Amino acid sequence: MADAIKTKKKKKKRTRKERRFVGEQTYASKLAVSIGMLGGLGLGAGVYSQWVSAQPAGIAPYLVGGGALLLGGALFYGDLGTLPIRVGDAGIAIERGKEIERIAWCDLERVHAVDGKLILEGKGQSFGIVIAAHSKGVARLVAEGTRRVPEAMDVKRSTISGLPEPREDDGQVLEVESVQVAGRHCAASGKAIAFERDARLCPLCCQVYLKDVVPKKCLTCQAELGEKAVSA
Predict the structure, then answer these.
(1) Are residues 93 and 208 in contact, defined by beta-carbon separation less than 8 angstroms?
(2) What do you get for the CA distance between the two ends of the chain, in Å?
(3) Both 104 and 151 in a single domain?
(4) Which residues form the domain of 113?
(5) Three-state secondary structure along the chain?
(6) Distance CA 46, CA 34 (A)
(7) Do 135 and 153 have their domain in common?
(8) Cα atoms found within 13 Å of the Cα of residue 170, Cβ hemisphere only
């Protein structure tokens, strides 16, 4: 009986979630694919003519150069390689292969739109998200950002007027892996956090505190803290 009471009193660890969104095909991505294919064909033809064929054509160097430029431009400027993004309890992240580049909600300084991209400016880092390629992800990001850090949101209504309403079945729901907090400074005391076990996070904006100096309210978003703070 006593063991059952103790078990009941134990605090259930809060599971942090985020949603993963894969880029959607857009007009720009289709155009980029077409240009890339044309560049690839030109490059292949030029290479064959210059180095494989018994009689190289005079145009071969131009095919190689032009094909390489078209292919490189399509890959660099096009959004055919739009990277997956994540939006959730730990902030916003972009997947770059096996690496995840993340900006916590508390580190966001400004979110605004420029030339079809949503620009996220944080402390010491920033990145852009193609709105047309990530309409559902951007809609979720704007909704979450407005709830968590409204002072950082500088997105005009005209920018989001065509975005879909966030739905519960949008994206792939994932558990947030442990957030890197070692080396950050406690928002209340200013002291550096050496070990993740010593850190506590605001569940709303992900602000970081030392476990012994967690305030009653988050200093960044004013959310109620105390026992509601979560482990890193």
Answers:
(1) no
(2) 32
(3) yes
(4) 85-175
(5) CHHHHHHHHCCCCCCCEEEEECCCCCHHHHHHHHHHHHHHHHHHHHHHHHHHCCCCCCCHHHHHHHHHHHHHHHHHHCCCCCCCEEEECCEEEEEECCEEEEECHHHEEEEEEECCEEEEEECCCEEEEECHHHHHHHHHHHHHHHHHCHHHECCCHHHHCCCCCCCCCCCEEEECCCCCCCCCECCCCCCECCCHHHEEECCCCCCEEEHHHCCCECCCCCCECHHHCEEC
(6) 18
(7) yes
(8) 23
Residue 11 belongs to a domain: no
Residue 22 lies in a domain: no
Per-residue pLDDT of the chain (232 residues; tens, 9 = 90+): 445 444 444 445 568 899 999 987 654 555 566 676 776 787 788 777 777 777 777 787 877 788 788 766 655 555 445 789 999 999 999 998 889 999 999 999 999 999 889 999 998 899 999 898 899 999 999 999 999 999 999 998 888 888 999 999 999 999 997 778 989 999 999 999 999 999 999 999 999 999 999 999 999 999 999 888 988 7
